[in-house]
Amino acid sequence: MKKIFGILIIVSVLLSSIFCVNANAAYDDVMESLGLYSDCLLLVSVDNSEVIFEKNAGKQTAPASLTKVVTAIVVLENCPDLNALVTVNESCIKELSGTGSSLGGLMAGEQMSVYDLLCCLLLKSANEAATALADHVSGGDRAKFVSMMNETAQRLGCDNSHFVNPHGLDDENQYVTARDMAKFILHAMEFPAFEEIVGRSTYTLAATNLQEERKLYSTNYMLNSAYKDYYCKYVKGGKTGSTSTAGRCMVAFASHDGYNYIAVSLNSTFYDVDNDGVSENGAFLDCKEMFEWAYKNIELVAIADTTQIVGQVPVKYAKDTDYITLSPAETVYSLVPEGTQSTGLLVEPIESTLPKSLKAPVKKGDVICRAKVMYAGQVIKEIDLVANMDVKMSIFAFLGSTAKSIFSHWIVKILAIAVIIALVVLIILRLRREKAPTVGGKNYRVLNYNDFMHMR
User: Which domain holds residue 428?
Assistant: First the structure.
């Protein structure tokens, strides 16, 4: 499963348009009815980059410890040997004093492998693990490491995110969006070590030079069946975050039955949803609700295929036809409610892109216009429509049409009339000349008797 999911991740990351598609409007009412708690939400398919639910997904907000996903990416990209030992400097711990940080109990001078520090970072959400790893990668130059984090964000197309520290403590200049967090987790999943670590609910740290063997417990309660309110059997991993400014945050990925999703919840809070006197984490609840609804209610189906005829356009100068028919450029799949039949889907050319006519020749496969795919009256996808046949040009039709077009212009008409009049005048003059008798090749006037009489 990990290999398959990893391939899907890589393919999705390579798509330049990833998560640029708006949420499926057909699910707007569904999202509203779920009563989700978070200020910013996103549920996106890893399989085809289709956004299912989206709420303030482009809003910049504090990331809290979701920052550590980016920290882990920089570490994994720059540390080929995960068994390499790192010494935790005293400054990495002291700088967090009084900040209310989430800590992993690391000690100054303690030596741990990069892998074990990543486990502290991603499972226990240990801030001193973040500073220790940052110093290890950058040689103690924290500004350099933060710069690497921001360079990573730019490279992944996460233009609405910015970082000033590797752990996620609140700062007005540190922010992400739900859409960017989905990109970050997708890229992080390319690293087997990251996928392995965030998929654990517990991990046993090996004994170090200063401490005995000890056990880490993940802050991701969606993996732990002991937390019935949060546990989701589809979830394979994720990262939590929480600060006073960021609220409760969660990014998680799920996989089941060939369907793979990423869910992001930002700026949520605690709610006593079941009136039992105990408040629940809204970020966990929202991600669980979105995953479970998706797996119970939607499926991937072909919403348009290349055999469909969805429109036609008149063709000028054509040899054997007056119209050309249009079909989808390729078979298009979308996530729609289970049981949706083709009769419930409508593919309709977009009028503003549909030409009034075409001129032959036309090649099969030429893109002619765009079309919208509609479900329940809502546009769920836009696609290209292409000519589904070759149309050859008729020379006679072309010449006839060209002549008709030329002579339809008023200037040409005036010139044509002038030419006709000139021709008529020339013909009349020529006829008169031809009627006059000639002698020796010259024209003479013939005088009769009465002419002489008048001359007298």
Answer: 409-455
